[in-house]
Amino acid sequence: MKQMKVGTIGYGGAFNMGRHHLKEMLLNPGFVAAAVCDLDAERLKVAKEDFPGIQTYTDVDTMLRRSDVELLVIILPHNVHAQVAVKCLKAGRHVVVEKPFAITVKECDDMIAAARATKRLLSTYHNRHWDSNILTIVANLHKIGRPFRWESHAGHYGEPGKWWRSYKEISGGIIYDWGAHFTEWMLQVMRYDMREISGYQVAGEVWKKFTNEDEVEAVVRFKGHAVASHTASSICMAGKDMIRITGTRGAIVATHSNVDIHTMDKAGNKLRSSVKMIPGRSPDYYKNVHDHLFTGEKLVITAEWARRVIQVLDYAGISARKGTVVKAKYK
After folding, report:
1. Residue 13 Cα distances to 74, 258, 262, angstroms
2. Which of 45, 75, 91, 112 lies 20 to 30 Å (CA to CA) from residue 81?
3. Strand, coil or helix: what is 39?
4. Are 137 and 252 within 8 A, CB to CB?
5. Given CA atoms 153, 154, 158, 161 in this order, what sign does their dihedral have?
6. What pLDDT shows up at residue 136?
7. CB count in 10 Å sphere of residue 91
8. What gap in Å lies between CA 102 and CA 113, rounded to an integer?
9. Over 80: is that where the pLDDT of 1 sits?
C-alpha cells in the first residue's frame, strides 16, 4: 500500500480539531487528505482553504456513498461517537474516534463488534499517551517500588465550560473531559487487573442550570492491593496535587510540566528531586496508526484499551447513582 485517503467527520471551529487531526495525519507519508464532512457550510469553506481540492459533504451517509475515503476521524459530540463509528465501520472504513471513545461500555462493545466483523482498525485519539509528564513518570516509576496508589485531580471553582462541557446528555458527565486523559494515564501506571469500580458525586447542588455534575470521583480497586482515584470538579475551592503516585519505596508528585520523585536514602533521610522531563510526542499517535496500517506495527491505542478507560468513567457514574460498587467486566 502506497497511500491511504483520510478524512474527518466534523470540522467545527472549536479548537480547530479537524485541521489539527488532518495536519498530524499528513506528517506521515502515504496519508492523503481526501474528504471532510460537517453540517456547517462555512466550516467546509475553511476546510477547502486549509486543504485545497479536498471533497466536502454535509452528511455522513452521502460521504460514505460517494467518497472512497478509507480512514475517518470522528470529531463529534460524545453522545454520537458510537453510532457514527459503527456506521463508518460497517461501510468498510477504518475509524479513529476523538476522546472519549464513547460514553458507555455498551457503546464501546458495539463499536468493537463492528470493527471485528469488518476487520477494520478502530482506535481513539489518546494522543496524551505520549505527553511529557506521563512519559517521564513511567520512565522513573522503578524508583518508587511497586505503585499501589494513584490519586489525580482536575478541578476549579466556577461554572462549567460551554456546550458539551455543561450538559451530561452530550458529554457523558464532568469526568469525561480531562478524566479520560487522567484515567488513561492511570492505567499506564496501575498495570493490574481491575476488580471493582466505585463512584461518588455532587450533582445539581451548585451549578443548577447545567446537567453536568458539580463533582465526580471514580475509584478503582485492582487485584494485588492497589487502588486508584480520579476527581473532576467545578466546585473545588482549594487545590490538590494534580497527580500523586505512592509506591512501596517512594512517591511521585506530578503536574503537566514537572515530575518530583520522593524517596529515602540508606540513612533514613527523605530525598526530593525534580527529574528532567522527557519531551512529549503527541504526533506519535498517528505515526503508530500509520505504521500499523502500512507495515503491521502493533497498535498502541487499541479499542480494547480505550474501552478500559470508558469502563472506569461509565461504572463510576452507575455506582454514584446507585450507591453501590460495580464489578469490573473488563479487567
Report:
1. 15, 31, 43
2. 45
3. coil
4. yes
5. negative
6. 98
7. 16
8. 14
9. no
Residue 137: partners with Cβ closer than 8 Å, 6 or more residues away:
185, 189, 243, 245, 252, 254, 259
Mean pLDDT of all residues in the chain? 96
User: d(Cα 31, Cα 108) in Å, to the nearest integer?
Assistant: 26
Distance CA(57)–CA(37), nearest Å, equals 5
Residue 72 confidence (pLDDT) above 80: yes
As a whole number of angstroms, the distance between CA 68 and CA 238 comes to 52
Where are the chain's structural domains? 4-128+283-299, 129-279+311-327
Model pLDDT for residues 187-243, shown as the tens digit of each residue: 999 999 999 999 999 999 999 999 999 999 999 999 999 999 999 999 999 989 999
- Class assignment of domain 4-128+283-299? alpha beta
- In the numeric block, which cell numbers belong to residue 13? 471551529
**What's at 318, amino acid-wise?**
I
Rounded Cα distance, 238 and 170, in Å:
28
Closest Cα partner for 36 from 65, 88, 4, 74? Answer: 74
First to last CA, the chain: 36
Euclidean distance between CA atoms 75 and 53, whole angstroms:
21
Regarding the domain delimited by 129-279+311-327, which CATH topology (the fold level of the hierarchy) does it fall under? Dihydrodipicolinate Reductase; domain 2 (3.30.360)
**CA 113 – CA 110 distance, rounded (Å):** 5
